[in-house]
Amino acid sequence: MATMIIENERTKAASGKTYEVRNPATGEVVDEVPFGDVADVDRAAQAAAKAFTTWSKLAPNKRAEILHKAARNMLAKVEEIAPILTKEQGKTLLESRIEAQRFGENIAWFADLADKVHGEHVALPDKTTYGLVVRRPIGVCGAIVPWNFPLTLAANKVAPAIAAGNTVVLKPASTTPLATLACIEALIEGGLPEGVVNVVLGPATGDAIVGHPLIRKIALTGSTPTGRKVMARAADALKKVTLELGGSDPCIVLDDADLEAAARAISVGRFFNCGQACLAVKRLYVQEAAYAPLMEKLVARASKLKPGNGLDKDSRMGPMHTDTQRAEVEAQVKDAVDRGANVLYGGGRPKGDEYENGWFIEPTILENVPDGARMWTEEVFGPALPVRKIKDLDEGLRLANDSQFGLGSSIWTGNMAAAHRAVSELEAGYTWVNALQIAHDELPFGGTKQSGFGKEHGVEAFLQYTEEKSVVYGGV
Ligand code: NAD
What pLDDT does 3 receive? Predict the structure, then answer.
């Protein structure tokens, strides 16, 4: 049985309760884990607060050294960790390998910043004084993570937090705790000191983290409704919050685009991770002359995405993570079809004995999806893509911005003026121009509108795990 990790000790829930983690491809039990609650969060927060007193005072280059060593140890275990992630989450082994690799790389990337970000000297009018702006870590930080990318989204929070000298109470999604535990175990085995990262499990621990008085900052990746609840609860104690929430990223393809490259990016963007990604091509707007050839290419690509158990070598798309999640996407597709949409590809469940016990779904492309359909107005968190023909860039931009969300966005065109206009006008935290939707370590990532606020990745994320303090030295 897996355990939680508090002060580097493997621990059961104080209540003694447990729950099962199941494989979305087979329905089989993968492991039993502790069902933690408020008491366990309290223990973890106390441990993190104790560790903060020493971790925050370490010389930054020493912290960097410890984190690099821990990351190297974790990266040496990618092949062990990937199948654990596939079994609990459903994604293909290739996707799990990429994710596990990203976890270790992210720790190393922020470790590099630990001793490079600094404050500044400020000259003051009275020459017997001088001013400084120093950066200090915040304290204990809460990291709350969803099930779609359990490792990368945990690393996005843990890595900048601990590199900046904070300590963490981490809560993975209830259904995907196992690979995260394996990663943290590997960091500890590689020398991460006790209490720096503590892991609690169980559905109620998220709320307990947000409400705990010792926890000073909350970083949540999750749905927009959860973001609203977390922000409201965090307001009680005026905690800092970073909210990475839902998205419905538009993609505009103009007639002069490289359609082969666009089709590849759209296919990866919509079907990677069985469509369960925040950054994903979720609404496609295609100019008239590009429409037919692009649809042909997209359908050809979708037809190659064989659904299957993520552990099987020939699977190109794992199952959906839960039955509820699949039912939600199926209902969104049905809503579009009921309103008159035309199914260009997929639209159902794959058939065969191997699909009987898992939450499999076909990659799906729909055209003529009428205005007002759920696929346009809601986040579609699965492998189904609504497509619409547009006359010109004006129409594309108007439709793209007609959304409550503002996470990612993309445009494909050979015209730099059109690309530049899209970059200026698309209401999103990220715009890719003729490029695959990949969130780079180097660039700050985060949403606008109801996709949340605050940044992960980049120097900006590191800074958000520090507080600025002004200092005046007198009598000099
Ligand atoms: P979710 O909001 O249901 O849960 C996310 C995490 O929050 C889980 O660990 C959950 O246990 C916890 N949680 C739930 N209610 C809570 C509360 N009241 N207080 C504190 N914690 C609470 O989301 P999900 O279904 O696990 O993930 C899918 C959603 O995440 C999608 O909307 C997706 O777009 C979004 N997402 C966003 C990003 C991003 O970076 N913007 C990345 C990935 C996923």
Answer: 97
Kindly state the average pLDDT of the residues 14-25.
Answer: 98
DSSP, res 354: G
Question: b or e along 153-184 (b: 16 or more beta carbons within 10 Å of the residue's beta carbon)?
Answer: bbbbbbbbbbbbbbbbbbbbbbbbbbbbbbbb
Which atom of ligand 1 is the closest one to the Cα of 226?
2
Ramachandran region, residue 8 (left: φ > 0; alpha: ψ -120 to 50; beta: rest): left
pTM (whole model) above 0.90: yes
pLDDT, tens digit (0-9, with 9 covering 90-100), for 215-251: 999 999 999 999 999 999 999 999 999 999 999 999 9
Please give the number of the atom of ligand 1 that sits closest to the Cα of 456: 40
Catalytic residue among 141, 251, 274, 278: 278
CA distance 212 to 204: 12
Give 177-241 as a DSSP string: -HHHHHHHHHHHHTTPPTTSEEE--STTHHHHHHH-TTEEEEEEES-HHHHHHHHHHHHTTT-EE
Coil, strand or helix: which one is 377?
A: helix
Distance CA 162, CA 334 (A): 45
Task: Find out whether the beta carbon of 227 lies less than 6 Å from any atom of ligand 1.
Answer: no
Laid out side by side, the sheet with 250-253 consists of: 342-345, 364-367, 384-390, 283-287, 250-253, 410-412, 432-433
C-alpha–C-alpha distance, residues 82 and 288, integer Å: 42
In angstroms, the Cα distances linking 43 to 3, 9, 47, 55, 202 are 14, 12, 6, 18, 14
**Mean per-residue pLDDT over the chain, rounded:** 98
Q: Does residue 246 line the site of ligand 1, with CB under 6 A?
A: yes
Instruction: Confirm whether 362 is a catalytic residue.
Output: no
Q: What is the CA radius of gyration of the chain?
A: 23
**Model confidence over 119-158: pLDDT tens digits?**
999 999 999 999 999 999 999 999 999 999 999 999 999 9
Residues sharing a CB contact under 8 Å with residue 245, sequence separation 6 or more, in sequence order: 220, 221, 222, 223, 224, 226, 227, 278, 407, 447, 450, 451, 452
